[in-house]
Design a protein that fits this description.
Blueprint (H helix, E strand, L loop, with lengths): L9 E4 L8 E3 L12 E7 L5 E6 L5 E7 L4 E3 L5
């Protein structure tokens, strides 16, 4: 299977993830929204990506499941 993103690659969410596709780690849950940055954790068997969303300090906020067309690669040099 040809994939656009690789494991540990930085990505930006282009849409708000569905609530059913979000696994929050904070209490209360931090809202995960379009424009947030994350890293690819794994490629799921169904072709979707498991993305780890973290804050600026590196604390995990949530994992989200996203389709490839709703992610954009982020240049690591920015």
């Amino acid at each position: 299977m040809q994939t656009k993103f690789k494991r540990h690659q930085k990505v930006k969410l282009l849409v708000n993830p569905a609530e059913k596709d979000t696994e929050p780690f904070t209490e209360p849950p931090t809202p995960i929204k379009k424009g947030m940055l994350g890293t690819i954790n794994i490629l799921l068997p169904n072709g979707r990506y498991h993305v780890r969303i973290s804050d600026e300090e590196g604390n995990e906020l949530a994992y989200v499941v996203m389709d490839e067309e709703y992610l954009e690669a982020v240049d690591n040099h920015l």
